[in-house]
Amino acid sequence: MSFIDDDRPQKKVAHEIGADLSTLSVDELKARIDLLKAEITRLEAEAASKTSTRSAAESLFRS
Predict the structure, then answer these.
(1) Cα dihedral sign for 19, 25, 27, 30?
(2) What is the model's pTM?
């Protein structure tokens, strides 16, 4: 392996819902699980933020 191979950008880990998982190693599957858990946390935080913003706006207009 040459030093040129080391300069290539690493492919970002991504997951496509419904993708074939049979070719992935256990480590790759665990990496995808971690990726999806982080995404769920991000989505939940955004939903909570939007809910609190909406609640604040509704209480403002009720007064």
Answers:
(1) positive
(2) 0.63
